[in-house]
Amino acid sequence: MDHNKNLSDQVPDHGAQNQDQALLNAYEDQKARARSPNTDIRIALAGAPDTLPEILYFLAEDSVAEVRRCVALNENAPRKADLLLTQDHDASIRQELAAKIARLTPELTDDRRSTLYKLTVQALEILAEDQLVRVREILSNALKDVAKAPSNVIITLARDQALTVCSPILEFSPVLSDSDLLEIIRSNPVQGAMSAISRRQALKESVSDSIAKSGDEAAIAELLVNDSAQIREDTLDLIIDRAPQRKSWHEPLAMRPNLSARAVQRIASFVAMNLLDRMQRRLDLDDDVMVAMAEAVERRLAEDTHTKLQEPEWANSDKLDETIAHMYEVGTLTNNALERALAQGEKRFVVKGLSLLSGLAAETVQNIITNRSAKAVIALTWKAGLKPHFASQLQSQLVGLSPNDMIRTTENRWPMSDNDMQWQIDFYST
Description:
66% helix; 430 residues; mainly alpha; 27 helices; disordered N terminus
């Protein structure tokens, strides 16, 4: 029998015993200080990096706010202590806690099953719904760039009714997916939230579509300024349809990269002359686009000259019929002339012009406008011999249809057959 085999098991490990005794002594010492009537002693203990977790948990319920604040600031505090402090009645303590936990979040393990992860998420969830806006602001600004931030916490902050809370998340958070953004847009978020989404880098076409269809003027202006945002040609057409009377869109439209020849021509028809001059000086446009630009500028200058000559008569409503009739006779009552009039808010001029060009009675034209039928407006544009794309402008600016109620038209194609459009004309003429 080997008597030496388990000899080590029989010999006391004095090193381990000494270590255990040291820990016990430290615990007893810290426990005594945690119960000290001297506030300064408890404050120092709460802020010390070597204070034991169980002692910090005890101090998280201290009657003195400054003690609890030091626990909230202590990065070695156990998460259970942090959870207690999420319900602290002192708002400044919750603010300090929010900043600390958010700061530590990127260092979390990816193991979602770990106790630390679960407790951290639980604390963040509570703070994300804190009654004090400032607490939620601190959390939002701290988490806006954190790729590992819990998605449910980010969604909560993104939907916050305080713009100062939701805006940083909506603009920067990498956690938000395109689906999340689309759902938030559909939920009619707080004013200004859509603009924050518009400022996101590399915005996808689907999100840009949704922003454009919302009709939010400020958000669309931000979208146009965002050179990294992907915008479909059809979506840009929709924006241009409504742009003449929205001056905040003019400059970003004029300076938008990768404009098509058609877009350039349409934009050049209504922007101010200083913007038109800046468009001409752009160096990033293709040769064919620059040719279209030159044509648009020439046409614009000619139209502006004619408009100036006619301004006294246009301003005088008594001579409006006479002016339009003269323009019709000499061939200047064109698609471009009506577009310019519409952009300037001369709706009476447009209605009179449509009546004259279509051969329909003014009452019939007015009836079509009053009934706000997209199909009828398209048929009226066709009957007047105007271009299909002008029908979109009439739907939006003259009739006041929302994007959802409009029927989109292109430059050279009608969305209805000739028979269907004639049926609409016959219906409203009877």
